[in-house]
Every structure is written in C-alpha cells, then in structure tokens.
Amino acid sequence: MIIGLTGGIGSGKTAAADRFASAHGIHVVDADLKSRVVVEPGRPALQHIVDRFGSDILLENGSLNRAALRERVFQDVDQRLWLETLLHPLIREEIISDLASATSPYALLVSPLLVESGQHAMTERIIVVDVPEATQILRTSQRDGVPEAQIKAIMQAQAKREDRLRHAHDIILNDQDLATLHAQVDALHERYLAMTTGATP
After folding, report:
1. Cβ pair 190, 182 in contact under 8 A
2. What is the pLDDT of residues 132-146, one digit of tens each?
3. Contact 80, 88 (CB under 8 A)
4. Where are the alpha helices (DSSP H) in the chain?
C-alpha cells in the first residue's frame, strides 16, 4: 500500500514523515528530495534550466541555485509551468523507482504537489497535514527567512487548502505541539498496519 502525504508549505509534512520513518520504520519517498536529484550537475535537466535562465542560475560549484530559481519562477507563471513540464516526469520516474524498493508494510510518498502534479494517482490513500494559512506563513518565514510575499506566491502555486482537504482520506491537524502531531501519526500507523494485514482498521 502506498500512502500519499501532502500539505502546504510550512504545514509540517517533514515532521510527520520523520515520525513515520523513525518511530515505525516506514519507507518514505520525498518528492522534494527527488526534485533535487533530477537537477544535480551532469543531469540533462540542469542544462535545460541553464539554457533557459542563463549560467547565473548556478552556484559557484556548478550546482543549481535553487533559491534564485524559486524567486524567478514564482514571479512568472509561464516560467513556472515550463519548469514543471520539464521536471515533473523526471521526478515521477525517480519516485516510482524508490517506491518499488520499499520493504515496510506500506510506503509513504511525501509531496507538497501531490494533488497538483498528479502524483496522487500513485497512492491508495492521502493524508493531508493541515494548518491555518496564517500559521503556514509564520512558520515558513521563521524557518526560511524569506519575505511574506514570496511565501504567498508559493502558496498560490499550491492547491488551495480546501482542495487538498477534499482529496484527504485522513487529516493530521498540526496546529499544536510536536507531541500532538506524533500522537496523530502513531494512531494512523496502527490503522494502516491493520489495513495491510486485512484486520478491521
């Protein structure tokens, strides 16, 4: 069984995924990490990005300046759509390969664009980590030190909160402390184990 885990920027997806992995040994595939792999130096996608945006999109060591690219694409919808068209199929290939190697009772696909990119089609259930939008902005600003306008632009490119929730089979409400988040993950884990063994969840 493959379970998708999604949520907007600053919602706590990583904290939830880390709990599934560290406390329960669940195989986690992170789409964000795969998005880094496909643009590593030497990969064709990186050259396509350089051809499009120029060599100043690179850091001194030849790797992609992700912050600079993010700033460019979230100011221009056409550029963002071009980038997504280039990267999403490559990221999908990496995800499928990694999921196929899972040996845990179920696997977790973590992606901020699970719904928008069509990656949800690879999953049998979807967990949404949900927080109020004001909390997203506050947490992301504190974590990344980026302007509120940029955070809002990223949020605009992601599914609206209500759209994500419409796709959810399970919801983790992450508006309290880490212990509360962990308790919700632990309860879901027991439920998923029951599902994979055919017991009543």
Report:
1. no
2. 777 777 777 777 777
3. no
4. 13-24, 31-37, 44-53, 66-73, 77-100, 133-144, 148-157, 161-167, 178-197
Give the containing element (helix H, strand E) for 117: none
> Which two structure tokens, joined as six digits, stand for 183?
């308790």
- pTM > 0.70: yes
d(CA 192, CA 134): 31
- Least Cα distance to 73 among 58, 53, 44 occurs for 53
What's the rounded Cα separation, in Å, for the pair 94 and 37? Answer: 8
CA distance 22 to 15: 10
The dihedral built from the CA positions of residue 158, 135, 6 and 200, taken in this order, carries a sign that is negative
Q: Residue 124: CB partners within 8 Å, gap ≥ 6? A: 1, 2, 3
Residue written as token pair 């990119």: 117
Asked if 8 and 161 touch (Cβ cutoff 8 Å), the reply is yes
